[in-house]
Amino acid sequence: MKNIGILILAILSVFIISSCSKSAIKIPDGIIAKDSMMFIMMDVHIAESGVKTLNADSTSINNKTYYEFIFKKYHISEAQFQKSLTFYTNNPELLEEIYTKMIEEMSRKETETYHLK
User: Fold this and answer.
1) How open is the CA angle 40-89-67, to the nearest 5 degrees?
2) Cα(71)–Cα(91) distance, rounded to whole angstroms?
3) What residue numbers bound the domain in which 32 lies?
4) What per-residue confidence (pLDDT) applies to 117?
5) Which residues contact 73 (CB under 8 A, 6 or more apart)?
6) Total structural domains in the chain?
7) From the first residue on, what is the mean pLDDT of each consecutive set of 10 residues in the chain (117 residues)?
8) Cα→Cα distances 99→33, 35, 37, 60, 62, Å
9) Phi and psi of 28, rounded to 5°?
10) Which of 20, 36, 51, 52 has the most CB atoms around its CB within 10 Å?
11) Quick one: which of 85, 93, 43, 35 has its CA closest to 66?
C-alpha cells in the first residue's frame, strides 16, 4: 500500500512539473523564424515611427513603400509576413521573446551609435 502511495505521488509530481514548465511550440513551415521576425519587426517599427513624423497626406503612401522595401530586403511576401505575424500574435510567449530580443538589439545599436560620436 505504501508503494502505491509513493507511485501516485511520483506520477502527480511529474504531471505538476511538466504542466508548469514552458512547452516548446513548434514553428510550422511557412512561418518566418523568430530571429528573422525580430529583425523584420524592428525595421517595421522604425519605418512606422519615421512615417509618423511626415505629414498625414503622405503617410499611407510611405507606409506602403516602406513595407515593400522591408519585404524585398528580407525576401518575403506580404502574405508570408501577415501569416507569420498572425502566428506569433496567437502565441504571445513567442511574440514576447521576439520583442525582448528586439529591445535588446535596439539598445545595443543605440549604444554603438553613441560610442561612435
Assistant:
1) 30
2) 22
3) 26-116
4) 63
5) 43
6) 1
7) 50 48 78 96 87 62 83 96 96 94 90 77
8) 14, 10, 10, 25, 24
9) -65, 160
10) 51
11) 43
Query: CB-hemisphere CA count at 13 Å for 75?
Result: 1
The C-alpha angle with vertex 20 and arms to 2 and 86, in degrees rounded to 5, equals: 150
Q: How far is CA 76 from CA 30, 83, 109, in A?
A: 10, 11, 24
CA 74, CA 39: separation in Å to the nearest integer? 9
The confidence score (pLDDT) of residue 109 equals 85
Question: Which grid coordinates belong to 42?
Answer: 524592428
- Whole-number pLDDT of residue 84: 96
- How many residues make up the chain in this entry? 117
